[in-house]
Amino acid sequence: MSTIHPGGAAMAAPTPSSPLTGPRTLTLRNYLAYAAGDAANNLSFTMAGMFLILYFTNVVGVEGAIVGTMFLFVRLVDAISDVAVGRLIDAKKAGRLGKFKPFILWFSLPLLVSSWAIYSAKIIFPDISGGAAVAYMYITYILMGSIFYTLVNIAYGSMAPSITQVPAERGKLAAFRGYGAALAVLALAFIIAPQIRANEQDPAALQQSLFITTGAFVVVGMLLYLFLVFNTQEQVARPMATVSLRDSLRTLVANKPLLRLSLGAVLFLTGITAFSTLGAYIAIYVQRDAQYIAWNTLAQTLAIFIVGPLIPTLVRTIGKRSGYLLFGGVGILGAAVLGLAPLGEIAMLGPVAFFFVGIGLNGVNTLMWALEADCVEYGEWQTGQRTEGTTYAVFSFTRKMGQALGGFVGGLALTWAGFSATAASSGEDQAAGVAGNIQIWAGGLVGGFILLSLLVMAAYPLTEKKFREITEAIAIRRTNEPR
């Protein structure tokens, strides 16, 4: 078989890297390509996280609690799809493009088109409402999130351990993944926020605008996915035998770092997703200007460009676990500002709060991906089986559970705050006191859940020293295996 190295030429090899040359040092082009993959992912996934609930409440007229319940139900469906796709990936043999990239090529276009369909409800069915609107919401979101996004994202995330085993490179790869996601989020905010601001009292015009915009994302997203596929290389040697379901489950049960990381991720992402779900409402109803969707997101996104360059240094000095705790503490500070500062009177305090939450979010999220990659080696060291796909699928599922719970409690918080989708979709104002309630719920949810996550991760067992010992032991084991 042949694989494509970063320069674009084909090289024949029975394994992802030549035994004579060893794994190649990653280049800027490789990092940028990996970043492009998460930028493309976020054109669908983060678009849903930031704006799906606002679209269905303010354009289609579905109440927030109903949308929140949908988030919870659909992510439970992901329990099946994530593990099934992880198993599918682990069972696949590497071909010309490797083991993971074919899934991205096959399913990226359906992912982008299904995301476009989500925001086309009133274009396809102009009079849709009630139960039909809820059914449309469920069907399109399941197609996008539980099927096509799962197929693309599990493959994308599973690539990381196969690209490099060098801790500093893994940290940098995770940082570039964060850069790609951050740039996509920033683009979404500055593209969508002016549309919301201009059409706040005209749901039909907002529908038309979102339909055109998400259609354009199909083209942009495909270009980014193609750049990813043809400019990354799977080069970490792996056992050639196919891993059985029984062996995969045995590896996961023995993987204590993965289990603790997963619990920490569920708690952290519950708070962050609730925060993201309520973000647009904070700008519109608390700061009283939809353009603050963009300014708040800009402040949150700038944090990744401060955090990213620090990640390799933090990994080398204090380690990933301590870095996780440090960044989480900064996130709690941002939550306090978000919930307690007078944003209605001093709207610019909003970007300050979002910046500190962004430091926590981007720092912890970047380290999560590096920690997940380390868990692959831990599982192989414990059992002799390397299960990138299943390990990533389980971690992805737990992250989605956090996102599901966050979307659910965010939607409920809107209802508890007294928000009316009927009034919003009719262009009417909300009742007095709703804005203050939304602010308090947003700050309390994100701060409380981050704190719980830090309590879990304080006892994370896989230190940097232990990881080095594990990779050395794996290398010796492979050297002694019969050829």
Q: If classified by CATH, what would the architecture be?
A: Up-down Bundle
Report the biggest beta sheet as strand number plus sense, adding barrel if it closes: 2 strands, antiparallel
Write down the domain tally: 1
Radius of gyration: 22 Å
Strand order of the largest sheet: 1-2
The CATH homologous superfamily is called MFS general substrate transporter like domains
Separation, N- and C-terminal Cα atoms = 18 Å
Mean pLDDT across the residues is: 83
> What is the third-level CATH name, the topology?
Growth Hormone, Chain: A
Low-confidence stretches: 1-21
Level-1 CATH class name: Mainly Alpha
Structural class of the secondary elements?
Answer: mainly alpha
Summarize the structure.
By secondary structure, this protein is mainly α. It is built from 16 helices and 2 strands. Helix 9 packs antiparallel against helix 12, helix 12 runs antiparallel to helix 13 and helix 12 runs parallel beside helix 16.
